[in-house]
Amino acid sequence: MTNKFIYFDHSATTQVRQEVIEAMLPYFSPKYGNASSIYSIGRESKKAIEEARDKVATALGAQSKEIFFTGSGTEADNWAIKGVVYANKSKGNHIITTAIEHPAVLHTCQYLESEGFEVTYLPVDENGLITVEQVSNAIKSNTVLITIMFANNEIGTIQPISEIGKLSREKGIYFHTDAVQAVGNVKIDVVDMNIDLLSLSGHKFYGPKGVGALYVRKGVKLTSFMHGGHQERGRRASTENVPAIVGIAKAIELATSNIDTYNNKLLELRERTINEISKNIPFIKLNGDRNKRLPGNVNFSFEFIEGESLLLMLDMKGIAASSGSACTSGSLDPSHVLLAIGLPHEIAHGSLRISFGEENTQEDVDYLLEVLPVIVQRLREMSPLYENVKRGN
Q1: b/e 160-190 (16+ beta carbons within 10 angstroms → b)
Q2: Does residue 109 carry a catalytic annotation?
Q3: How many CB atoms sit inside 10 A of residue 207's CB?
Q4: What integer is the mean pLDDT of 101-127?
Q5: d(Cα 348, Cα 300) in Å, to the nearest integer?
Q6: CA-closest candidate to residue 180, choices 147, 159, 204, 145
Q7: How many Cβ atoms are within 10 Å of 227's Cβ, its own excluded?
Q8: What phi and psi values does residue 140 have, to the nearest 5 degrees?
Q9: d(Cα 199, Cα 179) in Å, to the nearest integer?
Q10: Which of 312, 327, 374, 385 is catalytic?
Q11: pLDDT in tens, 253-306
């Protein structure tokens, strides 16, 4: 073991920025009032929520009244998808999505299939991309929703969101995008991109866990997902998590105001890592589009090794990384994303995702590039399949 610790799993979660913590603290105490109360500390909480709504709206190019706070990105996805299809059942029951969505979208769509809805899961190419033509060809007379993630959480591929949004608007079909990985990493304007609904989550861009938001374009017909009180203008019941809402707003304000500098830094780290690993380790495959990908995402598959063993050995060297989505880390099944881009099971099991963040440095990359080839070689030496390759069989 080592005393060194390098965190390369920012797609799973990020640390909370100090400025965000400082913005949140007063709303634990002394400004702890319930935002539905009429006395002074209640009014202070209500004001803080509305100021936070303004900040999130500004970051997305939306109007304040189009932002609704949720308990997570998963809740926002569920609300967007179920809310639209239940509210528009008279128009149709067909949903279009992709085979590589986050489980929050895939499992919601699968549930809706059990409720009698029809879902088309668009296949992706070897880079994880779909085309506007695919979406267009999948549209039926009963299509009520298109839900396609902005950027993939495992392989980082960024979809042609603006073009899909334009098509959706022309066809009069609601368009939702799970932008949990994209917010803070990609410039987003919901108006220019013709997005009707967008989900985001605070802990992906240096905000707190347990808070998300759903953008709902004015005029979108959407049923309520949670019932109870009159919070969030009667659309989402539950006493507001004021500190977290303040935190997500401060985090998105910081992330979007510094996005160019942040992205340039991540791109340098990403490009060097991809180039050096490709040069120095044989029998590998870069997963995801080479250029249309999140600035901080690196995902490789390594033949003849198992991803969990690779992660454990990296952890012993003080490196925290992932083999895929944190939301599926308890599963022994290979990544559905890697299978969807055409990888066989045995290679899909040997994947490594590196996702960079603001605290990472070139020295961190130096260390990764030093230890990774050694670990990969050590693991391969234990594989009889690799022995056959070395013998030329």
Answers
A1: bbeebbbbbeeeebbbbbbbbbbbbbbebeb
A2: no
A3: 31
A4: 98
A5: 9
A6: 204
A7: 10
A8: -120, 175
A9: 6
A10: 327
A11: 999 999 999 999 999 999 999 999 999 999 999 999 999 999 999 999 999 999
